[in-house]
Amino acid sequence: MAQITLNSIGDAVICTDMAGRIDYLNDAAEKITKWSKADARGQLLNTVFNIINADNREPKINTVELVLKNDHPIDLPINTILIRKDGSEIHIEDSASPIHNNLGSQYGVVIVFRDVSAAQDAASKLMYQAQHDNLTNLPNRLVLSDRIAHAIALAERNKSQFYVLFIDLDNFKKINDSLGHSIGDQLLKEVANRLVGCIRHSDTVSRQGGDEFIVLLSECQLQAEAAQITSKILATLLIPYRFAHTTFSISASIGISRYPIDGRDVAILINLADAAMYQAKKRGRNNFQFYEAGLEQLVPAR
Ligand SMILES: Nc1nc2c(ncn2[C@@H]2O[C@H](COP(=O)(O)OP(=O)(O)OP(=O)(O)O)[C@@H](O)[C@H]2O)c(=O)[nH]1
Fold first, then answer.
1. Which residues form the GGDEF domain (predicted)?
2. What are the angstrom distances between the C-alpha of 212 and each of 28, 195, 205, 209?
3. Is the ipTM of this complex over 0.95?
């Protein structure tokens, strides 16, 4: 009766003896671990229930030993991956308890676990969406602020510099109006790809929204080097785009703020780069401008 019950529940169940050898697994455990009952019986628990930490991929503690030593149930830490018999991996949630006989002495351990991959995938997807722009897949404002804050902390410690580039496409509205919103979207995606191609892996390109992008040059020390990278970005964005048999060009205006000379705070660095970008627009577009004192006063209220 107990076996029928255990086979009809959705959770996987494995029982071991005091030495950690498997003496029972239910149907759900067979399905999840991909070990048949016949093959699993007599194996050490860790062979069949091969679990690792999802973050560092270190093997997890010996469940049987821990439960028997403490003689009470434990919920194993979340973030557990089970490596199945065929080598595939799933996220699981599990708990383990000692089994006692009628006299109260321990005679084994029962592990109860379930596949939480779907929930884990949904959580990862939500996390990704919260941190990325859904059109270009670039990191969003939230992530950028975090990266700039991190760059500030690092630069403060190392007494070093870094640069923030505020990039706004020139006359992007005309593209939308003349070629349609869908071509506008394709252009934004291609701009994102080109920007990523212009910078180092350790730098960050983010989309602020609309046709605005921000680049954090976290490892750039010299102003001349920042100017050189910015010129490369301008030239790369100018290369003609071809979508749906239409070829066209677009330029950009870029404002640059410098840490620590212009500011030592995330919002200030972004605002001053934006003010410098506005000045680059005023100077005729398709160029860049480093922040200069007072430029923020020239930006009309938006
Ligand atoms: N296709 C598309 N258009 C967008 C999106 N978000 C904002 N826009 C449009 O982007 C345009 C932004 O235009 P602005 O930056 O204000 O002006 P501009 O035409 O680029 O002119 P300047 O910036 O002065 O050079 C607006 O027409 C918005 O409707 C988007 O996700 N996709």
1. 160-293
2. 51, 12, 11, 6
3. yes
Q: Which of 203, 211, 262, 274 is catalytic?
A: 211
Provide, rounded to the nearest whole percent, the portion of the chain with pLDDT above 70.
Answer: 96
Q: Do 175 and 250 touch, CB atoms closer than 8 A?
A: yes
When the pLDDT of each residue in the chain is averaged and rounded to a whole number, the result is 92
> Which domains are seen in the chain, by residue range?
1-122 (3.30.450.20), 131-290 (3.30.70.270)
What pTM was estimated for this model as a whole? Answer: 0.78
Cα of 255 vs centre of ligand 1, distance in Å, is 17
State in Å: Cα 183 to ligand 1 middle.
12
Ligand 1 pocket (Cβ < 6 Å) reads 135, 168-173, 176, 181, 184-185, 188, 210-211, 281
